[in-house]
Amino acid sequence: MNKINVGLIGLGTVGTGVVKILKKNAALIARRTGCTIRLKKVADLDRSRCRGLSLPAGAFASDAAAVINDPAIDIVIELIGGLEPARTLVLQALNNGKHVVTANKALLSHHGAELYAAAARHGVDIAFEASVAGGIPIIRAIRDGFASDRILNFYGILNGTSNYILSRMTDEGADFARVLRDAQQQGYAEADPTFDIEGIDALHKLCILIELGFGMKVDYRKLYTEGISSITALDIEHARELGYRIKLLAICRSAGNLIDARVHPTLVPEQHMLAQVHQTFNAIFLQTADVGPTMFYGRGAGMLPTGSAVVADIMALARTIGSGCPPRVPFLTATQDCGLRLQPVKNIQSRYYVRFSADDRPGVLSRIAGVLGRNRISISSVIQKGRTSHGGTVPIFMLTHEARESDMQSAMRQINRLALARQKAMLIRIADDLLSDA
Questions:
Q1: Choosing from 40, 205, 217, 247, which is the catalytic residue?
Q2: Is 205 a catalytic residue?
């Protein structure tokens, strides 16, 4: 039986999960790969992290170079996260002729093209199943399961922290700040939660899925991204009254040679499966030309779910090494123009939910409606709640018919400048098209 040596850089939560799975499931892994996979070296700056893991004698190193430069190591696992030194370490590993497994979505969304090209140049592969949706095998499904099919659209709940916050707000009527504090105390949110709650984490994952699904290299800086920090309990309540749930969605839709890709809070019809994804779970609703709609659901983070995805990549690479098959990376490094272009977000068409806080006096609604009308926006329905303060302001909720994003943004700027507006207007896009895609 072939022996495959692997080296791990980063012994955090996921790295610990990888070590545990490799040990616990060693016999199963050997039977399914035809290889003995040996964890030869582990590098981490904090030696205390290896306590209780029963690493082989001499396996621990405090310097990643001990892993990257070991000629006996076939596969390097990068689990330190971030851009640097991760980028440098992965490039060095590839340059040394080693296959790489990573869960680093930020690295791939920023420097993926460079890394794929380096892997192809050196005849090795880079695998990254764990970079999107943790234990859900969405990378493998898109790359292999739908290899002969054409991806049309996908909608993803790709960040467990934001989904946990929105779920708690929906179930309990709690406000954003309180639920965020709870999420931080329970370890679901970082001390600095910006990447999660402002949609950046979901954006990184969206870029990876677009590249895989459409063969299109995407500059993450060109995609519209909006987080959930402005969502209020009142928005959650009113969405529910209207038959919707608010979710942070990563959206990609194709229309001809245009790709509409964005991340933002979205009103999802409560009948749709995505509306039923709660707590820290992730889900991807995918539609292809031949298969039609499919749904992938599961844990998007955590020691063992994400560790399982990393080990699955190790096993796939072990089979490649054992069989002498060529690597898969050249599929991602095609230089030909795929003919697709990003659609500017200003050109998208959508229905909208809008919340205003305005003075409770005659003429307010007519002035707001006048601004919308002058911007070619038709109102579908209006609800005015009771006063929320002694100052006489009232929340006003509107649903629009389908409108162009640029018109909607122009109207919001004009309304926010009106003296009657007491707070900045809140705008959330509605994904009614999800029901037609299902």
A1: 205
A2: yes
